Amino acid sequence: MAFQEPIEKMSGRIREITVGGGDGALVIGGENVLPFYAWEGDMPNKPVVAMEVYDTTPEGWPQPLVDALGEVFHDPAMWARACVEQHGADMICVQLASTDPNAADTSPEDAAGTVKAVAAAVDVPIIVYGSGSTDKDAEVLKAVAEAMVDRPIAMGPTTEDNFKPITAAALAYGHIVVAETPIDVNMAKQLNILISQLGLPPERILLDPSTGAVGYGIEYSFTVSERLRLAALGQNDDMTQMPMICNLGKEAWRSKEAKTPVDEEPTWGDAHNRGVLWEATTAITMAASGANVLVMRHPESVALIHKAIDGLMES
Amino acid sequence: MPRVTFIPEDVFVDVQTGENLLRTAMMADVGVTATCGGDGTCGKCRMIVEQGDVEAIPSSRLTDDQVAAGYVLGCTTQVVGDIVVRIPAESRPGAAPARAHSQRTLAPLLTIEEQAARVPLDKSIPPVLRRYVELPRPDLCDNADSVSRLRQALRREHRVRDATFTLEAMREIPGVVAEAEWNVTALVVDPIGGAPAITRVEPGDTTDQQYAIAVDVGTTSVEVALVDLNENVIVAQCSEYNRQVKLGSDVITRVIAGSTLAGLVELQHLVADTITDLVLQVCAEADVSVPDLNAYFVAGNTVMTHLLYGISPASIRFEPYVPVASEFPLTTARKLGLPGGPATQVISMPCPASWLGGDIVAGVLAAGIPWADRLTLFVDIGTNGEIVLANTDWLIACSCSAGPAFEGAGIQHGMRAAEGAIEQVRIESTTLEPAILTIGNVKPLGICGSGLIDCVAELFLAGALERNGHLAPHTASSERVRSGERGMEYVLVHAEDSGTGSDIVLTETDIESLMRAKAAIHAGISVLAECVDIDITQVEEVIVAGGFGHYLDLERVMALGMLPELPLDRFTFIGNSSLLGATHAAKSSEMLKTAHKIAEMMTYVELSVSAGFMDHYMSSLFLPHTDLARFPRAQQLIDQRVVIEEAS
Ligand code: FES
Q: Residue A190: closest CA among chain B residues belongs to which residue?
């Protein structure tokens, strides 16, 4: 008898959800296997890249990023268009950093205006992240949700401390929430349950389990994400079956290995390649842990990741 | 047992004769209003006895017409036989739920007989006992020395072999024999291993006075029982907060405080003073002479035991985390600053590990685990939650820090399980109106552990809590929910009904403390089950211990996710098992020996190095648990209420 490769059958499936609206809508998730385990089941939608666009000119970013994107920093809509048209972004992730009360503290209305402008410039799905300030995010995302009533977006981060107002806004205006928890399987699941209990269907929740960059706890993030996938697939655990999003660009470019110029650390080698590879390695690791959306910064790392994912999907 | 049926619900419960009718209604889960804690003053808990007889105290709250119509106040009425009781609409916080004919079964605190039945009755004598002997006078033909003659007589008459005499006892002999003409009583101390010792000689027959003190030295509370060794019964019992609390509420801060000589001395004095007051109180109550006490039998966790003996516990804090001793020498009460005569002995339960003390050994003993031929889960709920999974062949145990919430400490309006403590709570789903009952049926002064469990579980089942323990947004419209100094709070008792003159509230912070405590305990149970690769549903009996009052609603405990969901008939609530075990040891040297065997057999699992503990803890930090599928009954209880709400 011919050798039969043993197949591990999973009992669960990641929810297939649609992000964005109109012609640009994109379907993610839907796999009933661990990432790229094509021989054991199917993975109908490949992981996608959402490129970051900031609502204000970023300060102090490392040179490789400035070289690649500096021309569009001043205008989020232009930035977004460049990402989609020139760099192949599957989605745009608008980071509303300037709304932070400890930064420029821009108003919710301004933030809504920025998001609207970006949306007008591109038709790919839009993900909106607030600054991470619990109370301000609730106000800002409410305004954004209202402004974007005609074009569904995904918005976050929604945490245990502000899920109520943000979920309410998502419910009222038809959006998806991004539920963010601090690298913990149980907390991730708990937040999903809490959000669902407010009446938001699980198809409108994206799971952000938080990420560390290579060298900054990525093995821990990887394990937590993988465990979430194992619970979703292996135990058919309904409240972990949301597609996952990894907000990793920020983390990778914050690491000193990615941002230190070569004249400061001559032995570390070329800063450009170093930064790009740091981000790409972080991204591919998280894709392998089960991320469905990778939030990234540099066009070259995005290109690398697209290539890697295509390769993995073919094999 | 009398059967009490409540209509219109048509729910019945079987209760002990003499049970309070309001409590019975609460146990049956029928909705009633009761705001004064059972004091008989609010007049809200009116019920109509439609069939059968009760013993009711007349109340000015009821008119003659009402009394003629069968009205009683539930809280001042005792059940004496089968009855049918109607809860009138005015006594209901919400609409009467539609329920089918059903019985609610309970697992109340074991009776004294049931407690005794868990351990084998044996004929062995107390380890410290007065023995009376009558000796012939010595003469020139029988000229053995006094000690030898006494020793011989003890062997002949009481089978006390090879007794040794302490110097103090020897010094007493001449005076005693002169006074009592060779009719004397010797205090015989028979420790584990080694020869019995005679520590005191008294003139005449003093064996009619044989009392021992059993002490449970808890981190938060200390409880003592006065045991009559002739009658084998507890004659008085009382408890108090451990005065060491002022130097820190948890064990670790005590260890730190006890690491200096001055701190150690202070802690030793504080606990000795706490015990002293309690002992004087029980002895006064039972009219027992303190200097005549035979002995103390102490059960405490390892740190508490070290502190009582004045031994530094400092080494417990540092790798490899070992204590100074696991067994403690025989000593006298006076040496430890405890009241008693010069020969009153102190015997302690062995403490097998740093975080596994004599309290848990005593608990396992009291639970009868060494003789029960079944897989048993024993959970002692206190400042430290101790968990033992065992059968007759093996015992595996762990200890987790639950905080003092269960003992009413660290809770805004918490108190010990003493008179005036709210120990039972029911909350109606639509109005959030509570029914409360206090220990001693008096106006409420605060909330004790069982009341806290009941209250949080009821809020959760009533849909007022989100699964993370926060008050749900819709509760903001209830007049019982308001924002206080420490966030949102639920008003359990309004000032006019309380014995303190101010509101008694439950804050979100209190709920959080309880959540953490219950999560630690559930996580500990999960880790132990994993260690021995046992599916928790295989557990045949769950014994719950803790210094709660008389009532701990185990269904509520389960609904909170503190204990695994198992059929209710597998649960037993044994009460303060540490004290009970110490009492058993006081009564029987066989029991004391078994305690030492238990300590030797116990395998200890250190949770702080367990990889799975934190994970289990996080998943338990949710109501009832992140894995909802493991708690189907909690969900059913919630659904039931929802149905009731919709029906009403
Ligand atoms: S009169 Fe019975 S509870 Fe108040």
A: B626
The separation between CA B277 and the C-alpha centre of its own chain, rounded to angstroms, equals: 19
State the Cα–Cα distance between residues A191 and A182, nearest whole angstrom.
11
Among candidates B109, B125, B585, B123, which has minimal Cα distance to B362? B585
- Which atom of ligand 1 sits closest to the CA of residue B73? 2
Contact yes or no for B622 and A197 at CB 8 A:
no
Architecture of domain B361-399+531-611: 2-Layer Sandwich (3.30)
Give the type of residue at B523. A
Q: What does the alpha-carbon distance between residue B36 and residue B39 come to, in Å, rounded to a whole number?
A: 6
The residues spanned by each domain of chain B are 3-104, 128-203, 211-355, 361-399+531-611, 405-514+635-647
Q: CA geometry: angle at A127 spanning A122 and A133, to 5°? A: 135
Which residues of chain B have a CB within 8 Å of the CB of A237?
Answer: 627
- Those of residues 603-642 in B touching chain A at CB distance below 8 A are 615, 618-619, 621-622, 626-628
Chain B residues touching residue A187 (CB < 8 angstroms): 618
Reply yes or no on domain B128-203 having CATH 3.10.20.880: yes
Per CATH, B211-355 and B361-399+531-611 having the same topology is answered yes
Query: What's the pTM value of the predicted model, to 2 decimals?
Result: 0.85
Question: Which residue of B623, B626, B642 is the best one to mutate when testing the A interface, meaning the one whose CB has the most A CBs within 10 A?
Answer: B626
CA-to-CA dists, residue A139 to A105, A174, B447, angstroms = 12, 17, 39
Out of 3.30.300.20, 3.50.50.60, 3.10.20.30, 3.40.440.10, the CATH code matching B3-104 is 3.10.20.30
Nearest alpha carbon to residue A202 among A4, A12, A7, A14: A14
Is 0.85 exceeded by the ipTM? no
- Whether A187 sits inside 8 A of B468 (CB atoms) is no
Q: Is A65 helix (H, G, I), strand (E, B) or coil?
A: helix
Query: Under CATH, what is the fold of the domain A47-314?
Result: TIM Barrel (3.20.20)
Chain A and chain B share a number of CB contacts under 8 A equal to 30
pLDDT 10s per residue in chain A (315 long)? 788 888 888 999 999 999 999 899 999 999 999 999 988 999 999 999 999 999 999 999 999 999 999 999 999 999 999 999 999 999 999 999 999 999 999 999 999 999 999 999 999 999 999 999 999 999 999 999 999 999 999 999 999 999 999 999 999 999 999 999 999 999 999 999 999 999 999 999 999 999 999 999 999 999 999 999 999 999 999 999 999 999 999 999 999 999 999 999 999 999 999 999 999 999 999 999 999 999 999 999 999 999 999 999 986
Is CATH 3.30.70.3420 correct for B211-355?
no
